[in-house]
């Protein structure tokens, strides 16, 4: 890992722990035991770190999504995919905890983020409609209900980290159980019987792992 990567890694950890606005270049330098000159050689200011971390996060999310493109569609795949995305979000949780500030301060990130929101909504619609066609979800779901599921699901997906920040700490398995249940539980009432059995078996296993993790 070169110094530029070390600075990014250190900044990400400090932002996650203390909040973006409380971490200065001086604090990053102190943590890494480097001089301000060494820092400024790689980054002229903190804004470049935020932008690069955002790019890294997007790449990791695309990589997580790519893992599931070859798998046969199903509710287990849907849940596994969301867990992978949750792991990326947890790694970069400062971004979601400081989302309003970042979007207000960095116009380029705001533009890209809003474009990604539209892509997420389109992807969500395509996935949900595909699940209806493949018999994973019921075929009698009204169009407006489907649209609500997609939009509410996206809101939960983008803001569950805020809920996690104010909740009592959970172990890894308990957190996975809690937030998958919140963000993916929207689909439970609309699952076909076979998918519902898979869904419940998945969460039964998560509950056992959460108990063992305590």
Provide a brief overview of the structure.
With 214 residues, this protein is an all-alpha fold.
Structure description:
The chain has 214 residues and is mostly helical. It has two domains: 1-44, Orthogonal Bundle (Arc Repressor Mutant, subunit A); 54-213, Tetracycline Repressor, domain 2. Helix content is 78%, strand content 0%. The protein is built from eleven helices and no strands. It is elongated and about 60 Å long.
Topology record:
Layout: H1 3-18, H2 25-32, H3 36-42, H4 46-66, H5 75-91, H6 93-97, H7 99-105, H8 107-133, H9 143-166, H10 172-184, H11 193-213
Helix pairs in contact: 1-2, 4-5, 7-8, 8-9, 9-10, 10-11
**Which class best fits the helix and strand makeup?**
mainly alpha
Element-by-element helix/strand order = HHHHHHHHHHH
SS element count, helices: 11
The proportion of strand residues reads under 5%
CATH topology-level name of the largest domain: Tetracycline Repressor, domain 2
Gross CATH architecture of the largest domain: Orthogonal Bundle
Helix content: over 70%
Gap between N and C termini, in Å?
Answer: 34 Å
Instruction: Give the rounded overall mean pLDDT.
Output: 89
Number of domains: 2
Number of strands: 0
Could you name the CATH class of the largest domain? Answer: Mainly Alpha
Give the overall shape: elongated
Name the poorly predicted regions.
Answer: none
Rg, nearest Å = 20 Å
The biggest sheet amounts to: none
What is the CATH superfamily of the largest domain?
Tetracycline Repressor, domain 2
């Amino acid at each position: 890992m070169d110094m530029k990567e070390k600075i990014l890694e250190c900044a990400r950890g400090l932002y996650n722990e203390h909040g973006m606005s409380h971490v200065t270049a001086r604090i990053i330098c102190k943590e890494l035991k480097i001089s301000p000159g060494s820092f400024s050689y790689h980054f002229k200011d903190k804004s470049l770190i935020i932008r690069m971390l955002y790019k890294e996060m997007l790449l990791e999310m695309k990589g997580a999504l790519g893992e599931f493109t070859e798998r046969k569609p199903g509710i287990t795949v849907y849940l596994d995919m969301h867990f992978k995305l949750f792991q990326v979000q947890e790694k970069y949780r400062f971004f979601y905890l400081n989302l309003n500030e970042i979007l207000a301060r960095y116009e380029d990130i705001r533009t890209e983020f809003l474009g990604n929101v539209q892509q997420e909504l389109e992807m969500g619609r395509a996935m949900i409609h595909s699940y209806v066609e493949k018999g994973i979800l019921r075929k009698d779901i009204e169009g407006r209900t489907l649209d609500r599921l997609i939009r509410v699901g996206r809101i939960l997906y983008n803001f569950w980290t805020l809920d996690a920040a104010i909740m009592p700490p959970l172990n890894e398995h308990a957190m996975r159980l809690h937030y998958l249940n919140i963000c993916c539980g929207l689909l439970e009432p609309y699952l076909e019987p076979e998918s519902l059995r898979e869904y419940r078996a998945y969460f039964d296993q998560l509950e056992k792992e959460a108990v063992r993790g305590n």
